[in-house]
Amino acid sequence: MLTKRTFLMTATGLLMGYLAAGQSTTPAPAAGPSPVDLLSWVTWGAAGVVLLMGVLVAGSLASAGRIRAAALSAAAEPVAAVPAIAAAPAAAKTAPAPAPVAAEAAITAEPVLV
Question: What is the DSSP letter of 33?
Fold first, then answer.
């Protein structure tokens, strides 16, 4: 009962408000953009920017995911050259020691001016 009465009172009040607004003698609004039109343009523009940023971020995340998946699958595959390097003799792995420099040659060298 209370819900039906509330609905009927609200509907009657809205109907009376619409009838009163329809009979008003105020002049029609002036030509040109109204604040509501301007607000809707700004709102739709902001929504477009947000949508564009969302598409760019989604594309970037998808690309990063593909790159990471490719790197992980490449890292999981064994490399055939690794056993050959491990089996190489120890002498081939070491580099020869650099030749010693004479102390007199380092002292008597003239400085280079740039």
Answer: -
Residue indicated by tokens 């050959």: 84
Q: How far apart are CA 82 and CA 74, in angstroms?
A: 14
Closest CA to 86 of 98, 97, 78: 78
**DSSP annotation of 89:** -
Please state the pTM of the whole predicted model: 0.37
DSSP state letters, 45-71:
HHHHHHHHHHHHHHHHHHHHHHHHHHH
Q: What is the rounded CA–CA span in Å between residue 17 and residue 24?
A: 11
Three-state SS for 92-106 is HHCCCCCCCCCHHHH
CA-based radius of gyration for the chain: 41
10-residue block means of pLDDT along the chain (114 residues)? 79 85 69 71 93 95 91 72 54 61 59 61
